[in-house]
Amino acid sequence: MQDLRINEQRLWDTLMEMGEIGGTEKGGCNRLAGTDLDKQARDLFVSWCEACGCTVEVDKIGNIFARRPGINNDLPAVGTGSHLDTQPTGGKFDGVFGVLSGVEVLRTLHENKIETPTAMEFSVWTNEEGSRFQPAMQGSGTYVGRFDLAAELNKTDVNGIRLGDELERIGYLGDMELGSRHMGAFFEAHIEQGPILEDEKKAIGIVRLGQGIRWYNIEVVGRPSHSGTTPMHLRKDAMLAASAIVTEMNNIAHRHENGLGTVGYMDVWPNSRNTIPGKVTFSADLRNPRPDVLLTMHEELEAFCEKVAKEHNLDVNLDHFWYFAPVEFNASDDVKAATEKLGYSHMDIYAGAGHDACYMADLVPTGMIFTPCLNGISHNEAEYSSPEECAAGANVLLHTMLEASKR
Ligand code: HGY
Ligand code: MN
Ligand code: MN
Ligand code: MN
Question: Which CDD domains did the record assign (predicted)?
């Protein structure tokens, strides 16, 4: 088995084929959770797994599990997986690389007629991106019991469409109980989505930690009035107040080591050039690898919102609806052992993005395998990892899973 390797060209062709579903002119992918394109991608994944003899089941929040039997199916399976949903201007690799590395592992085991001691589980998690429906990692977070199933199925997108209705419409509102596919270990391969591995010229990142995340919806409520007749000192300008909060978020992030603060979404009402904005609703995304620092950042944002409400004499509603605490990956030594056995250059790293493995770490020994991506770009249509880089990650996944299956 030592010399067993995945098929680099087949993995690349599979990535490119999947990338056609929701493919954009600039070479990226727009395949939002619960859409027809998500269905097409899911159906393709299921057909590939069934072609290799897997049995496939879908749970109550649409997570897909393709199971390859082992010698002793009473033992917990070794799992892998990631997500197929993308950002609106996403790439071909974020999440998809992890899912299709799993498919390539499956194909390699199947064609070599390798019997593994335990079953192997290949999964696709619902709405990891948190772009159309919030929060991110929604399927894996619900699977591990961090989120309430009914509440998550009732989440709606900006058009008021329910996640549950979309999953039913695309045929992926399953009936399998959450968490009922017992796994003994879980490994997720993922592109780094940042510049470090490329900078350090390392082929593999041994992911030791997933950083903390806090998400907010911030609503600033002022008073719409005429831009030509309302003196500056008599305005309740929601845009002015919102801009102060966005700027302070940037200051908070810079004030703290490894602090990150982002406003990605903003809605202005009534959104007319000669009416002073009456309401501005926007997202806020704070991150830090340390829970104590992330809490301080949270407290500073809260205090500043109260200050702005007073100074601008208007309402600021801060809805802190999602907190993901930093998580250690306790099976990362398995990843390191496989990486060293295969002779790939590597380094320890922490995950800046959230991943489904971050929630799976609640339940089972979990590890993540990072591969470099060009210029560290992700959540961007220019996202790119080379066939060789992808193959290295998939080979590490193959050997990590084979070793874990022997335990
Ligand atoms: O937000 C994230 O880090 C991930 O892309 N869902
Ligand atoms: Mn991802
Ligand atoms: Mn992502
Ligand atoms: Mn993920």
Answer: M20_bAS
Phi first, then psi, for residue 316 (nearest 5°) are: -125, 115
Q: How far apart are CA 139 and CA 193, in angstroms?
A: 21
- 256 class by beta-carbon count within 10 Å (0-12 exposed, 13-18 middle, 19+ buried): middle
In the block, residue with structure tokens 């102060």: 244
Cα(21)–Cα(9) distance, integer angstroms: 19
**DSSP state letter for 162:** B
The rounded Å distance from CA 49 to ligand 3 centre is 24
Locate 283 and state its tokens.
Answer: 């997202």
Closest ligand 1 atom to Cα of 379: 5
Q: How far is CA 302 from CA 43, 135, 297, 385, in A?
A: 44, 20, 9, 39
In short, whether 286's Cβ falls inside 6 Å of ligand 1 is: no
- Pick out the residues of the known binding site for Zn(2+): 83, 94, 129, 190, 379
Q: Name the residue with tokens 């948190």.
A: 130
Residue type, 397: L
Q: In the structure encoding, which two tokens stand for residue 156, read together? A: 């709606």
Q: Is 367 in the pocket of ligand 1 (CB under 6 A)?
A: no
pLDDT 10s per residue in the chain (407 long)?
889 999 999 999 999 999 999 999 999 999 999 999 999 999 999 999 999 999 999 999 999 999 999 999 999 999 999 999 999 999 999 999 999 999 999 999 999 999 999 999 999 999 999 999 999 999 999 999 999 999 999 999 999 999 999 999 999 999 999 988 889 999 999 999 999 999 999 999 999 999 999 999 999 999 999 999 999 999 999 999 999 999 999 999 999 999 999 999 999 999 999 999 999 999 999 999 999 999 999 999 999 999 999 999 999 999 999 999 999 999 999 999 999 999 999 999 999 999 999 999 999 999 999 999 999 999 999 999 999 999 999 999 999 999 999 98
Q: Which residues are annotated binding-site positions?
A: 83, 94, 129, 190, 379
- Which has the closest alpha carbon to 126: 157, 81, 156, 161? 81
